[in-house]
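Co-fold these.
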Amino acid sequence: MDYLAQQLINGLTLGSIYGLIAIGYTMVYGIIGMINFAHGDVFMVGAFVSLICILIFGITGSTDIVIGIGMLMIVAVIAMAISGVYGWTIERLAYRPLRGSFRLAPLITAIGVSIFLQNFVQETQGARVKPLQALFAGGFTLHEGTEFTVRITYMQILIVVLTIILMTGFSLLISRTSLGRAQRACEQDLKMTQLLGIDVDRTISMTFVIGAMLAAVAGLMYLLYYGVIDFFIGFSAGVKAFTAAVLGGIGSLPGAMIGGVLIGLIEVLFAAYFSSEYKDVAAFSMLIIVLIFMPQGLLGRPEIEKV
Amino acid sequence: MSNAHYDPSHDKGDVINGIVKRSLIAVAIAAIIFAPTILLKTQVSQISNTLFILYRWEGFAIACGLILIWRVLYEIRAWRKAHTDHKSSSRTQAGENRFGHFVGPVLLVAAIVLPFMPFTDRYILDIGILIITYVMLGWGLQIVVGLAGLLDLGYVAFYAVGAYSYALLAEHFGFGFWICLPLAGIFAATWGVVLGFPVLRLRGDYLAIVTLAFGEIIRVVLLNWRDFTGGSNGLSNIPRPSFFGIPFSQGPDGFAATFGLEYSSLQRMGFLYFLILALALLTFYISSRLRKLPMGRAWEALREDEIACRSLGLNTINTKLSAFAIGAMFGGFAGSFFAAKQAFISPESFNFMESATILAIVVLGGMSSQIGVVFSSIAMVGGIEVLRQLQFLKAIFGPDFDPSQLRLLLFGLAMIIVMLWRPRGFVSSRAPTVFFKEKKSVGSSMISQGRG
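Predicted complex below.
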């Protein structure tokens, strides 16, 4: 029982990270109906930017926790800004010129961008994994069991709280601001929105920027949680986050978050009770199973194909 | 990227101001993008195993400078374009047929005589085999991506299925290469059907990501199912193919002795070369015949408009499934050849980057141009060899820098550029095979660009 509780805490933390990435997939898919394959790699870039900032600021395990968290917030803002520029540039250079081209074209450029980013970072940052020493190693002991002690670390609390804050802010952005209104309009009918005088190109650009920003925070969290990153982390995290988006119902924002948490839980529980070597297989099989049995996901609308 | 800001009525000062402003913005964005990659390198210290940051101002300045030059040139070109008359240039489509009829046979003859050339050594044969393997894989994937329009990102999984089928069948049952070859194709095709059946009902984008996931699943299983696949150690001592029962050995029953030749290890290489050439030609023959069958027509129609196909009573699932299975089958053939040639396979040969490479070959070759695949394979394998020669770059970028790693980086870039510039590829266009001879108001070129 204690063991299960511990795994649930771990799964929730991991799921928060996946959920934040999944939002980028689901938003872009909702508006322009394409899978942004490069999104996982933007997440990876976010993790690298965070790592560089942490090193420049000199945050270490011995930094005072309050100052440390304050500095991490600054790191998060910088990572969001830089990743946002990445997201904008990718959309501008690789996707926008192809709007209205044949169906496979943007998918192929997306793959191209993904391959390019991975290898660009590998070339410039080196192929070796980057270990970061643990920051704020402490935590609370929730339950002292006879065999197993349930603990929640400061880092896990930070990740979950930060995710909740970001999600709240993001929901407000979508429901209250004019940008959010434009995005919802674009999601319903791109052409009609354009006719009504909304700058659709700008709205789509902003969607990519916001998605990239959330992915950057997820990158920071991944770095803090695992303590190692390399140029390839975007690949499997990207596929899992996409699975989360599909599971929650693609196009649905709360669905992305729920899907993220579910995928996080599935991965952690599978690793804990069955086999940690096959945990990726479990997450990837989940994608196939969901697509077969409920392609519209938990909260999604069934897709209607239009001529 | 419109030319709208070049209104001829503006005076020169405004134009120059605009160019300077946009160029500076481009450089600023480039600086932000290059800062966490080129400028600031995280380096693991050898002594304490902690990270520190290495500043590389020179590379950063060069990269930003290049972006500035590119942007200024781009602006000047756009400005010139705005000042010259717009001729509605209807690009003449280089017909694949005429081009292919001329170049194809030349290439084929060159491929056949290559092993007999006096300058041919082991290295050249090796590269030749590699190129033809990629050509074959490219033709196989082309059926799926270029003809049927299904984006398959896990093609290497079928290649792996083929390779492991041969290795395992030979190890456990002692089957020879010639029995395993068709079996490997059948297994790969079966996997294609098993995987394709559930997902082909969905939109094309889902298929892309499911095949990606499937490719990873296969790789992880191969890596971790140690009793069966040997895990990361892979499988070694895979038997080499024989010349219809005659082994390439030095003994009295060997190939050299039987045919009264002097023994040379090049004979086996030559045989493998012709084997893969024959397999590739088989792939070529079958796929070019299939294009002309109703099935191939259905694939192309499906690629252009799925809803129209369904309205006309085409069974879209079967059509897609057949493309998927046939593509997978050729991947399986190539895989079992790969296992036979290497005599050693491990999961590392079947990672996502391999799928990406094959996809890049198809895309760069022009999606459905068969001769294009040949050229892009030659360019790719040749490109790797050229990059390998660029070791002097290590002196500039440090010892971590591996020029041959640049290959995928350039591929990614090339894929983007090809899609933006000539989405139907360089060598020839991907016009539908069947179309009306008389041009209507909407030309076939426009329909094929999705603008009809």
